[in-house]
Amino acid sequence: MCLAIPALVKSMDGYFAEVEIGGLTRQASLQLTPEARVGDYVLLHTGYAISIIDQREAEETLKLLEEMANQPDDYHQGQLYTMVD
Amino acid sequence: MKFIDDYRDPKLGQRLIDRIQHLSTTPVRFMEFCGGHTVAIFRHGIRQLLPRTIEMLSGPGCPVCVTANQDLDKAIALARQPGVIIASFGDMLRVPGSHSSLQQAKAEGGDVRVVYSTQDALAIARENPDKALVFIGIGFETTAPTIAASIIQAEAEGINNYYVLSFHKLCPPVMKAILDLGEVSLSGIICPGHVSAIIGSHPYDFIPQDYGIACAVAGFEPLDILLSIDMLINQIETEQYRVEIAYRRGVRPEGNHQALKLMDSVFETGDANWRGIGIVPASGLKLSQKYQRFDAESNFAIDPGPAREPAGCICGSILRGISTPADCRLFKNSCTPEDPVGPCMVSSEGACATYYHYGDTGGG
Ligand code: SF4
């Protein structure tokens, strides 16, 4: 029920936006994310954007995952997690 | 799809599993609080791939499942009142209440409509000014701000036939209730990603601080979940317990300020009745004094009579983490998704439905 999926904000008119999800256009309310702008990705839950996806954090997490996969022995040094703190 | 496919890379997933296997030395038991996590874990076969040292339990994080029959009965009773249109998220319709269901009330002439969003409910209210539109407000902190937003919009537009029957529930208080019950010993909790997009990670600080167990907020793709499990194992192996976020692209430690502000202005906390757990203090949201005119409970006389639980259904113990669907003798016998006895088999993220679809051995 708490499902939310990434959606790209295509256009806005006040709080109302058209967003794109996997090629399909849908209506969304930006009442909960008033700082969202065209070009942002938001997490869409029951027609409302509940969070703006932080693209830099998304990349950082992927980088972290890659490093974890490649350096399992560094684990107990506690080094890896500090990268994203 | 962007922000999804990258977090499903099977090769990377396998390497993370290897790493977790390598690092996990002591037996641990984790609860994934959220039903959405249970589904993702089963769908991607994560339980089966994890080392034997790690046991995963499903928690009470399914809003449909935790709605008590007393509350569901109120919604069904309202659906039978003339001049009332009920709007509900789809899964609620098939949940058997004490004597009937919303679906049955609809079949018997009640005006019950499935909506995807409160925006749809508002549209129905606008189109039917001579009727009362009652939205069945279920859901956790992810959903509650959207209901708050709809009430503020109704107020601004002067829609005066829109009401909410608020059964909204809060996650941190019920996590505390489960930990205090002490029926299951947990080494760590995977916290719900989209609840946390709203409330942030700080409301979980009491988990490591007061209970000395590991805590991580996870997203819903397999790599998100594996990252959170890795974090939990790391906390346990180094004995440094804290709340970590494995879903930073969607969750900020402070949460969503605007959503919290809307929730605060429309709702106040009150006791809530959880299926299987009972009344948990300050774990629910009721409409605040200022918005009483949108509150279905204060504006309609509702008397559903005494509630009863479906005979033989052990949803309650499953939601508390002390049983699994395989322990229920009705599971797959008289209880199936086509003919469900309890809510955990109705909801697409209920533990029974998930075990049914993906195998009850805990694998994929
Ligand atoms: S299998 Fe059916 S009857 Fe048994 S606990 Fe699950 S929902 Fe209830």
Topology:
The complex is a heterodimer of chains A (85) and B (364).
Chain A: E1 5-13, E2 16-21, E3 24-29, E4 41-45, E5 48-52, H1 55-70, H2 79-82
Antiparallel strand pairs in A: 1-2, 1-4, 2-3, 4-5
Chain B: H1 10-23, E1 28-34, H2 35-43, H3 46-49, E2 54-61, H4 63-66, H5 69-79, E3 84-88, H6 102-107, E4 111-114, H7 118-127, E5 132-137, H8 144-157, E6 162-166, H9 171-181, E7 188-191, H10 193-199, H11 206-211, E8 214-217, H12 222-238, E9 243-245, H13 257-266, E10 267-274, E11 278-287, H14 296-299, H15 315-320, H16 343-346, H17 351-358
Parallel strand pairs in B: 1-2, 1-7, 3-4, 3-5, 5-6, 7-8, 8-9
Antiparallel strand pairs in B: 10-11
Helix pairs in contact in B: 1-12, 2-17, 8-13
The structure holds iron/sulfur cluster (SF4).
What is the CATH topology of chain A? SH3 type barrels
Secondary-structure-based class of chain A equals alpha+beta
Helix residue percentage of chain B: 25-40%
Rg over C-alpha atoms of chain A, rounded to the nearest angstrom:
17 Å
Biggest sheet of chain A, strands in spatial order?
3-2-1-4-5
CATH top level class name of the largest domain in chain B: Alpha Beta
Fourth-tier CATH superfamily name of the largest domain in chain B = HypD, alpha/beta domain 2
Strand arrangement, major sheet of chain B: 2-1-7-8-9
Reported for the largest beta sheet of chain B, the result is: 5 strands, parallel
Q: What is the CATH class name of chain A?
A: Mainly Beta
N-to-C CA distance of chain B: 23 Å
Uncertain runs of chain A: 76-85
**Gyration radius of chain B, rounded:** 21 Å
Mean pLDDT of chain A: 87
- Based on secondary structure, the structural category of chain B is alpha/beta
Order of helices and strands of chain B: HEHHEHHEHEHEHEHEHHEHEHEEHHHH
Given as residue ranges, the uncertain stretches of chain B (5+ residues, pLDDT < 50) are: none
**Cα shape of chain A:** elongated
